[in-house]
Amino acid sequence: MRWELPVGSESAFSPSSPFAASIARLFAITLVVCAVVGAVVVAAIAYSLTRFRAGPGEVEPPQVNGNRKLEIIWTAVPIAIVTGLFVMSIETMSRSDPPADRAPDLVVVGHQWWWEARYASGLVTANEIHVPTGKPLLVRLEAADVIHDFWVPQLARKMDAVPGHPNFFWMSADAPGEYGGACAEYCGTQHAWMRLLVVAQTPAAFDAWQAGQLAPAHAPASAGATRGERVFRNEACGNCHAIAGRGFEGRVAPDLTHLASRSTLGAGVSGDTPGELTAWLHDPQSIKPGCHMPDFKLADAEVDDVATYLEELR
Ligand code: CUA
């Protein structure tokens, strides 16, 4: 099962935040204005083509030079239209992108090819960003390697993630739901599988989610999981991945502390069912070619144990 979201859940035309709504509104107004201008121009051309067609035996039509009234109209009207759109664009820019006026609520880091999310509470997660509804969040956007671009069209403007140059933007969600997003700047071979999911929840549900995610992982509960953690340790998976409370502190790959609570693997390339997790551990390169997770050539039994271990990380 690959990334599946309800139709329209990644559409800039159905905004679910004041920031995105202002952009959608400007787009709609611009589209209507341009459509009317286009229709008037096409109609004028069509009229001229038929009305002033050469008659039988007519070699050259009567020449007309200058018409002050017409010239003033076709200068003034376009200036008024362009000025109006300019003013509305400025207004939309200030609505969709207000200045950053406080410490960020959320730090998002683009990596090849996944998203890291760090909350002010200390919580770190990946590819699935939960947010409380009705609350504008100031996001500080960074990049770990190359330029990425964070785009969740229903919730916020589009913003580049530039290495060494943090950018700030505002994001909010009016209603609970799942909002899809993607990296919108070509960033290498797996750019297309750099998706993300924003899950908007009521503030109470968000607080409960955050409290659960802040809890460290418990010790393995089953024999298989215990063996799996040993494999995880011996293969040095913790050099890249973190599992809070278990001594794994790598920060170059997604945090796995609550991996099993997420709905996808590999930034949307695969679902997160036990079968899909097993397939991923067998050979990540066959599922997401070029990704930075190597194939550790684990034996089948080892893969099963690691999968059992990771499945317990709820
Ligand atoms: Cu990251 Cu495209």
Notes on the structure:
By secondary structure, the chain is of the alpha+beta class. The protein is about 35% helix and about 20% strand. It is built from seven helices and 14 strands. A five-stranded mixed beta sheet has the order 3-2-1-5-8, with no helix packed on it. A five-stranded mixed beta sheet has the order 4-10-9-6-7. Strands 11-12 form a two-stranded antiparallel sheet. The chain starts with 17 loop residues before the first helix and ends with a helix. The mean pLDDT is about 90. Dinuclear copper ion binds near residues 148, 183 and 191. Dinuclear copper ion binds near residues 113, 148, 185 and 187.
Comma- or semicolon-separated keywords:
elongated; 314 residues; 19% strand; alpha+beta; five-stranded mixed beta sheet; binds dinuclear copper ion
Strand numbers in spatial order across the main sheet: 3-2-1-5-8
List the quaternary state of the chains: single chain
Structural class: alpha+beta
Total strand segments:
14
Strand content of the residues, in percent?
A: 15-25%
